[in-house]
Amino acid sequence: MMCRNIVKASEEELRSRVETNALKENMYRHMLYLKEQQVQYYRHKCEHFLQHSDRMVSAKLMQRGSQLLYDLDLTSRELRTLKDNIHVMERMMRTELRKEYLREI
Is the pTM of this model over 0.70? Predict the structure, then answer.
């Protein structure tokens, strides 16, 4: 009788441990699933951030490039206007200088 009680208690202890281990295993599987979901979420968030930052950098570079092209175009037009009109301006200055010298003489 005593042996039966010991065997019965051992079986109950073993069953209890098996159930506890099964619950722990399910809990760990669920925790692993949640961690995998977190990894996927953060990976997606990181990829989205990289794409967004690439777009922002590209947009800033394009904006800066466009501004530089505009400034260059404006400056080259002003330079062309000055080059085209330098002879006229020189002629006007010489005429005015002659008038002043003629007045003084």
Answer: no
Tens of pLDDT along 45-70?
A: 999 999 999 899 999 999 999 999 99
Cα 52-56-62 angle, rounded to 5 deg: 145
Residue 1 has pLDDT above 80, yes or no: no
Residue keyed to tokens 């208690």: 9
Q: Is 44 exposed, middle or buried (0-12, 13-18, 19+ CB in 10 A)?
A: exposed
Query: Which residue type does 20 have?
Result: T
| CA–CA distance, 43 with 58 (Å, rounded to integer) | 22
Angle at 35 between CA 29 and CA 36, to 5 degrees: 90
Question: In angstroms, rounded to a whole number, what is the distance separating the alpha carbons of residues 2 and 13?
Answer: 16
Q: Which residue do the tokens 């925790």 mark?
A: 31
